[in-house]
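Task: sequence design from structure.
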C-alpha cells in the first residue's frame, strides 16, 4: 500500500475540537488507501512551568535533562492524537523519537538525524496501525534523548518518509499552500500550484516562514515530494518537487521579505590589512551568520567591507568586533539600523537576463533607495529602508505580474 507521511502544525492541538478535526482528515487519507504515518509538532504545554521548577533546583540544569523535559511536550501531543484516533475505531500508537528508531548525532551547532531504523514503523504499518511520532527528537549513541531544534518536526517527517519509502510528505499549515508573497502585506498574493525545491529553499532562506530550509534540503537530496496544504480546509496545496511541469511559468515566482536587518561596515587603513577570511572566520567561530557582503576597494580610498546581519545577533557581533579589533586590523566599525531585505525568486531567471535591471528600475521609480544587493541564479535580494519594505514588496509583486494565475 502507498505510504504517506503527514506533519501536523501547532494549531492542530489548540483545542479538543481541532484534534477531532484533524482526526477526520487523517481518516479520510486512510480511507482513500494510504498507509499513514503522522509526525506531531512541538507544542508549549508544560515546558516553561517545569523549566522554572528545574531552575529553582539548580542554577545550571544539564542540557540532557532540559532536553528530556522539552521532549515530553511533543510526546503529549502524539498521545492525545492517538487517543482520539483509537476512540474513532482506528488503531494508532504514539511513539517517542527513540521508539520510532530515530538515531542522531551532534555537531558543534546542531543535532542531526543519522539514520532511522525503519523496522518498527514498517511493523506497525503491516498491522494497520497508524504510528504517531513525536517530531524533532531522537536518541544519540548512548541512548540520551536529543532534540533536533528549529525545523526539527518537518525534517523528521521528511527523514521518516525517506526511511519507509513514502510517496510524499504533506506539511499541514494554517495556510492553504505557498503564496507568491505574504498575503498579510501583499493583498494580491496568489497561491502557487507548484514550486521547485530550489525556489522554496530560497524563499525559506529569505524570510518566508514556510518550511525550514533543512527539511527542504533533505527533501531535495532524496527527491521526496512535499505538499504544503491546509490543516483545516480540503483545498489542493502547493506541490514541491524537482522541476515544475511547464516552461510557461512566470520568470519570478515569489517575493519574500525579512525585517530588522542591520548593515555593519568595517574599514581598514590599507588593502593589505583587509583580510576577509580572518573577519568572517572570527564571526563564524562566534556563531554569527552574515548575509549580503559588499567590499569596496578603490584606488586612493580606504577599503571597506559591509555585511548584513539579523537584529538578534547585533549586540554579540559588535562585542566580537570590539574584542578582536587588534587581531583583525581594522580601523573603524560602523552600523546602520532600520533596514529590511526584499527578494524576488524564480528559476526562470536563469534563462531570462535583465530581471535585476527591471527590479532596480521599478524600485527607482518608486523612490526606494537600494542599500545593498545580492544575487544568485534564481534570486535577487536588496536591502532597503524598513519603512519602504511593504511598498517595495507590493511594487515588485506588481512588476513581475504575480497577480496572474501561477502553474
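Answer:
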Amino acid at each position: 500500500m502507498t505510504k504517506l507521511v503527514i506533519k501536523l502544525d501547532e494549531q492542530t492541538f489548540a483545542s479538543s475540537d481541532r484534534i477531532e478535526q484533524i482526526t477526520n482528515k487523517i481518516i479520510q487519507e486512510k480511507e482513500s488507501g494510504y498507509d499513514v504515518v503522522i509526525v506531531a509538532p512541538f507544542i508549549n504545554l508544560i515546558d516553561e512551568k517545569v523549566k522554572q521548577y528545574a531552575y529553582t533546583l539548580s542554577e545550571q540544569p544539564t542540557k540532557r535533562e532540559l532536553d528530556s523535559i522539552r521532549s515530553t511536550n511533543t510526546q503529549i501531543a502524539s498521545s492525545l492524537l492517538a487517543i482520539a484516533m483509537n476512540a474513532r475505531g482506528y488503531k494508532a500508537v504514539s511513539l517517542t523519537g527513540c521508539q520510532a528508531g530515530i538515531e542522531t548525532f551532534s555537531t558543534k551547532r546542531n543535532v542531526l538525524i543519522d539514520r532511522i531504523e525503519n523496522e518498527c514503523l514498517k511493523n506497525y504499518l503491516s498491522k494497520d496501525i497508524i504510528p504517531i511520532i513525536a517530531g524533532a527528537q531522537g536518541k544519540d549513541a548512548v541512548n540520551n534523548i536529543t532534540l533536533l531544534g528549529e525545523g526539527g518536526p518537518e525534517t523528521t517527517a521528511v527523514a521518516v518518509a525517506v526511511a519507509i519509502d513514502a510517496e510524499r510528505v504533506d506539511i499541514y499549515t494554517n495556510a492553504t499552500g505557498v503564496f507568491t508573497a505574504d498575503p498579510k502585506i501583499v493583498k494580491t498574493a496568489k497561491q502557487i500550484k507548484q514550486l521547485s525545491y530550489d525556489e522554496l529553499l530560497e524563499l525559506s532562506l529569505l524570510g518566508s516562514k514556510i518550511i525550514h530550509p533543512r527539511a527542504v534540503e533533505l527533501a531535495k537530496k532524496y527527491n521526496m515530494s512535499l505538499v504544503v496544504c491546509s490543516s483545516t480546509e480540503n483545498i489542493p496545496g502547493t506541490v514541491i518537487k524537482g522541476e515544475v511541469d511547464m516552461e510557461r511559468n512566470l520568470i519570478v515566482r515569489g517575493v519574500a521579505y525579512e525585517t530588522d536587518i542591520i548593515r555593519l561596515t568595517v574599514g581598514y587603513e590599507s588593502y593589505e590589512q583587509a583580510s576577509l577570511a580572518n573577519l568572517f572566520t572570527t564571526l563564524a567561530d562566534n556563531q554569527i551568520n552574515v548575509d549580503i557582503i559588499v567590499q569596496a576597494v578603490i584606488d586612493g580610498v580606504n577599503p571597506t567591507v559591509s555585511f548584513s546581519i539579523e537584529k538578534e545577533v547585533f549586540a554579540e557581533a559588535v562585542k566580537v568586533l570590539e574584542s578582536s579589533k587588534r587581531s583583525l586590523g581594522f580601523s573603524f566599525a560602523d552600523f546602520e539600523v532600520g533596514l529590511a531585505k526584499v527578494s524576488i525568486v524564480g528559476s526562470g531567471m536563469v534563462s531570462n537576463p535583465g530581471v535585476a535591471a527591471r527590479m532596480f528600475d521599478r524600485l527607482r521609480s518608486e523612490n526606494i533607495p537600494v542599500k545593498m544587493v545580492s544575487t544568485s541564479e534564481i534570486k535577487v535580494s536588496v536591502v532597503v529602508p524598513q519603512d519602504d519594505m511593504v511598498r517595495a514588496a507590493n511594487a515588485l509583486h506588481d512588476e513581475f505580474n504575480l497577480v496572474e494565475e501561477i502553474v
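The two ends are 30 Å apart (CA to CA).
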